[in-house]
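Friendly challenge for the regulars: who can give me the structure tokens for this chain first? No prize, just bragging rights.
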Amino acid sequence: MIRATTLERVLVVLSDFIALTICFVLAYWVQFHSGWIADKYDPSKPINLYLHIGLALNIAWLVWFTITGLYRSWLLLSRTHQILRVLRAVVVGVLLIILGLFGSEFFSKLSAGDSLGSGYMYGSRFPWIFIYGASVLVLTAAFRMGVYLCLRGLLRHGYGANNVLILGATDAGQKIADALRKAPEVGQRVIGFVDEHYQVMAHDFAGVPVLGKYSDLSQLVKKHHVFGIVIAHESSSPQEIMRVLVWLCDLPIHIYIVPELCPVITGNFKSNLVHGFELHELFAFTMPLWQVRIKRMMDLAVAGFIGICAFPVGLLAAIAIKLDDHGPIFYSQERIGLYGKPFTVYKFRTMRTDAEKFGAQWATKKDPRITRIGHFLRKTRIDELPQLLCVIKGDMSMVGPRPERAVFIEKLREQIPFYISRLKMKPGLTGWAQVRHHYDTSIEDVQIKLNYDMYYYENMSLLLDFQILVRTVYVVLTGKGAQ
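First reply, four minutes later:
Bragging rights claimed.
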């Protein structure tokens, strides 16, 4: 069955396209057939001559709406907030249209010192644009509200709801299940409970099946296509909540918690209140969708630019590695990426070929396994250059937490609370932890870096990425933190 969020996006995109098409047809009629604009009145002009312009405008609007985050899920968010976001996007979009139509004329007149009077306000293009922009705002907002009325109707009849699990067959869990059952329009269907006492309790609670224990969560999420999990252990201690989250924070799902438990976890991480329902979302991804897309474009642009500029440096590094000990130039290793997806990372080799004959281990200060040229490559971070390929492929970003090996992740997830939460972010070539701390040499270093990584996750933005990239240049030039 189609999820509520997927159904929502399909319907909203379709409604936007229809609304934009109507707006263009209306603007065409006003300009050429209404007679309201005397110098443009010409009923002999058929609309088919302008269909390509209308299609291009529609596509441009849809792309712009995507960039500005209007196609995020608004199912549990304020409708008023959505209308204000539509208003902002349309106003800026109209300004961009004006700039595209009049920008060159404006700057040419300005540079020539000509008057920007009525001659500049050529014909009736401005009234046409404002009528078009106003109709885009009104119809787009109205059609979207219509979509949500229809969507709520579908959800009330059980179509398109997201599957939700409740952790804790408790009174609080029952209240959540009952509340969601009575409010199907929010699009969250409780498919079962998960409880540690699964083996000794009945396989049914409050009319909902008990599906398993915490250790079954990963399997249950995949099997039932779970969208979100609600933590409802009303008697839980901070340690219990931490233990539960260790099983959850590397899964691609939304994690909610009942308000009664918020004092238990306050101060550990940021939480967002779910509008219209008494739940808080933990580990909420707060970076706007348009910034996510720009971040990816920046990754490709920066990685490509650095790759081209650094190619001669990489060539010299390869020759130096070969001359140093005649071993292989590159070193490949499997790392764990976003939501536990494994991928292969490549580096210029900086250690002896037998560096891990006794098993995986962290680098140490003055590590004897590092080769002569390896010390220089690590200090200047030249050894990281081949990872630009991982950025271009999409396995990594330019900025994010460093990707770790599976063997270390399994050890660290048991020793450090929330270490696994790093897997909610795409790993990066550089990151807030890398520019603020040195290479990992101990569990204490890993804990410090985790705090930096979580700070980055909670404050992720293009501005912070830019700041990190600038700091990385400083680290590379000074050799700070290299080992």
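The radius of gyration is 28 Å. The CA atoms of residues 4 and 160 lie 4 Å apart. Your move, everyone else.
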